[in-house]
Amino acid sequence: MAYLVDAAIHPRCNAAIAYLIGIIFYPDNESIRLGFLIGAAIPIGVTSLIWSSMNGGDVPLSMSAVTLDTLISPLLLPLFIAIVVGKMIQIDMNHLLIGLFWMVTVPSLLGMLLHDYTKGTLDRYVRSIGGVTSKFALFLVIYINASAIAPEINWDYSVVKLLLVILIVSVSGYVLGYFSSYILKGHHPDRMVTMIYSVGMRNNSLGLVLALTYFPPAVALPITLSMLYQQPLAAVVSQLLNRAKRKKRLESVET
Description:
The chain has helices at residues 2-25, 30-41, 47-54, 59-85, 93-117, 123-127, 129-149, 157-180, 189-200, 204-214, 220-254. The chain is mainly alpha-helical. The protein has a single domain, classed as Na+/H+ antiporter like fold (Up-down Bundle), CATH 1.20.1530.20. Helix 1 crosses helix 4 (59-85). The chain is globular. It starts with a helix and ends with a helix.
């Protein structure tokens, strides 16, 4: 239970870190800073389950963390935004809260109820035709929404700077997940893997839609570009974890 609460709390800590990084590099651009904040505060990405499972993580903990984070984000995200930037940007919190409820909470609850009602018989469909159509729909949503921020991109050194800062923010999430696994008593390698991916990976497609729905298009720019890093960084982390496991095995054999 403690690890579950930890997995839900630390993404909010990472959001604060992301916003502070934004203040350092973009002190005069509130939209970019807000984009960093939203990009780090949105729910855990579902793909974290896959990466956690592939690297020997605690799958039940991963599933619980994704579910809990998704359900509570409609309450925590508006509150977090209000606390950090509420005085600088006028935000209709009631509208944002209701929108998140319908975009996140309702579909999640309906999915869980449908799974229980069908006793998991839809899993075969989800892994075959449903998996393909859902990925196509996700690609279409990202493509349509990304086209809205195209005018906000100036193809000069500012894009290079933004990409580098986004890389720093993205890496900080994985680093925070790693160290947060040592905070609680009873450190376990499988839970460490889960914490790394739970804190490091975000639901960027939701963040993109959210930013474009309730904020100026410039806010969505960091969230959109962060998609370029999410899966490659997850793969790099996977390689580092496997290398650490091999090194530990060799050390145990030698001793």
